[in-house]
Amino acid sequence: MVRWAEATEAPEEEQAEGKSRSKRVTALLVLAALIFVAYGVVRVLSLESNAFLIGAMALTPYVAAGALLLALITVIAGRKLLALVVLIVALSLGALLGPRYLSEEQPDAQGPHLRIMAANLHVGLGDARTIVDLVRREQVDILTLPELTPYAVSALDDAGLRDLLPYRVFDERQGGGGSGIAAKVPLRKIILTEDTNLAQPSAVVDLPGRQDIELTAIHVQPPLSAQDVGDWQHELKTLPQPTDRRISILAGDFNATLDHFAFRNLVDRGYADAAEESGDGLIPTWSSWPTGPPLTLDHIVVDAGCAISSYSVHDVPGSDHDAIIAEVVLP
């Protein structure tokens, strides 16, 4: 009788332990699903309102992939209803990301072709020879240089930048606050932005013939604190808007991705993002591993009447940003 009692108690204990383990697994999966659902709500409804949420929105491509993985795990774990919920979140985020993989039909622009490059120099440490070699090889017409320092100006000129792009509007500063525009054709400095924490010079690009453009070298304050968030939102909101006066182009480091409402709102005013138009909107342009994953923070934003005939991303040793180049066809 003793042996029979011992034989029946073990399965009962195992069943209880199995039920307890199942409940813990379910609780963990539900918690993970709720986090993904909350993220999806914030992203879809554009509710980012603080530095944490703004930073989180930049991770949308990774979160979409994570949601798909969680959906697979929940299916394997037999929680099919929970898997369906997570899959809906993944598909919703994927629908927002999908257009960045697909090239858009371009306007019937017949004007001059301009090759525009933006390269954040990372407090002037970006390799000057690489920058100049890119300008030469890619036949760049206009170059914007966020985080331009006096040292970087000297290094770039020693590498031959002045010979290739002799016209310039520079506001070089120590640290990361400087910026500049260099071009093959004459530039006339103008004021298009308010005073900002980081230099954002603007210029009229005097093209041959009657059609000129207005170009601004962008470097928006990164949203790393509560004070920074207000500046970031204000600076994106007050960047130059398209006008009937001239074609407007913005190029540089926006410290924002297409998953940020403030940046999407800027583009929706009458601009087009060159990377998104080319189907390359998810190619990262910045990374600071191990402190930050690859993100698409640098953009060339053009008047919606312009066409984008090519777009590419290039490594720059010494900088935490890649250089981006777009060939823009003016209306």
Describe what this molecule looks like in 3D.
By secondary structure, the protein is of the alpha+beta class. The protein folds into two domains: 2-100; 109-329, Endonuclease/exonuclease/phosphatase (Deoxyribonuclease I, Chain A). It is 40% helix and 20% strand. The chain is built from ten helices and twelve strands. The protein has helices at 2-44, 51-57, 60-76, 80-97, 128-137, 150-158, 161-164, 226-237, 261-267, 274-278, and strands at residues 113-118, 142-144, 167-171, 179-183, 187-190, 202-205, 213-219, 247-253, 271-273, 298-303, 307-314, 323-329. The strands form two sheets. Strands 3-4-2-1-12-11 form a six-stranded mixed beta sheet. It has a six-stranded mixed beta sheet with strand order 5-6-7-8-10-9. Helix 1 (2-44) packs parallel to helix 4 and helix 5 crosses helix 6 (150-158). The model is unreliable at 1-8 (pLDDT under 50).
Supply database-style keywords.
331 residues, alpha+beta, Deoxyribonuclease I, Chain A, 2 domains, 6-stranded mixed β-sheet, 10 helices, 40% helix, disordered N terminus
Q: Classify the secondary structure makeup into a structural class.
A: alpha+beta
- Round the mean pLDDT to the nearest integer and report it: 93
- How many structural domains? 2
Q: What's the main sheet like?
A: 6 strands, mixed
Taking strands numbered 1, 2, ... along the chain, how are they ordered across the largest sheet? 3-4-2-1-12-11
Radius of gyration: 25 Å
| The top level CATH class name of the largest domain | Alpha Beta
Residue runs with pLDDT of under 50 for 5 or more positions: 1-8
